[in-house]
Amino acid sequence: MGNAESGSYRKRLLGISPEEQAEIEQRFENFCGGNNSSKKCVHLKTFQDSVGHALPSNMTQRIFSAIQGVNTGNKSSPPAADISKEQFMFFFVDVLRGNAEEKSWVIFRLISSTNCEHVKREQVQQLAQDLIVSMVRVLKLQNLLHGWNVEKTVDNCSGVSILASQFLSQLKSADQTDFDKPELSHSLCSRSSIEDWLYRVPMISTFLRVVVARGLSVLKTHPEIQRDLRNLVPTCRGVKKPSFVSLLDLPSVMFLNSHLPSEVQHKWRLLFSTSIHGESFSKLCGHIVDQGPCLLVLKDSDGFVFGGFASQTWEVKPQYQGDTRCFLFTASPNLDVYTYTGYNDHYMYLNHGQQTMPNGLGMGGQHNYFGLWIDSDYGTGHSKAKPRCTTYNSPQLSAKEDFTIDSLEVWAVGDIPEHLLAKNKKSILDVDPEARALLEMTGKTRQSDGLRDVENDEC
Length: 459
Prior knowledge:
EF-hand-dom_pair; 459 residues; 39% helix; 17 helices
């Protein structure tokens, strides 16, 4: 390699440390296997055999083709069917540390191996689906689910398609047209459109980093990759019933978790589920009050899944609560999050047993016209947002404005509040059976039930 080429090579590697460079080079040597020639390169078959079942075969092919398309500036490039060490190195530099422009080239090469200037929307959507499927594969095969059990969530295949559609909703065509209609599936988008897309949907870059690092076993324990995994998949706790199946699929969990405040993204703890605790508004209140920030998820009788994030602990009182971090969301048939508009402060509301104020749980809008409302006469609710909820700018979340609840679950997010940990150390109900019996006779539940010994529970 000449001095000019050597200097260019070193400049491209400034984004990684010498230790990282050495690990990437060693992995390339492993891919080369028994190739003892002075000019080492990797064939597709060798690459596929080395990756094995860590990634779906179509993603392995995409990654190989993307590496092949890397321009190293080296005049003595490898044969067309192979990849060189320089290409392998530069690909990792761009994926792990590249800016949006550099990553957009990677995405473009993952979509199409030809040197075209535009790609079709349907090609982008297929890549998005392949990337999400690969992410789920990596998490499952490498025991990175943090307590989640794929078999105890709803259909992940449907979730993959829904999350891919959500990603695509943020993509603009080459003429800056939104891809929000089926007839636009053959519309074209440019590399600048892909670059803009990566700014709008940072999860794509995160998925790509994790899939490449963990799938190809390169820098897979690096702090940056470990941080990505912590932010994507929260630790799941609090599920003791083997038959429990969450209303959320794994792609939805990752998407919703990415919209939570960073300080609570690391852990979800099941507080309430109709399949476990029954259908009762008083039981719902008993399990969620004073438990810290919560994510409420419900499914209506038409199969729509939606809910809201309460950024502050629920309290039973006739006033609005919460702050600007609250949001509403839909999970099926569409996946989206709707955040604070600044119009009013009607973030969250919980009331029970009052004669002069509405009794129930609500988020956004106003009394009798909530963006999301669960009536205290459990089983019914409404989502009145025509044209939009004033607090969150959300549309109607449910299939019908007035809906019937099919099932409901509530997750506390973040660490258990300190006051509950202190209370949990020694409860009068542990030493006074009469007090516990009296509580049960009144139909109330122990606030601390479900908090103890949950660290080994799985979802």
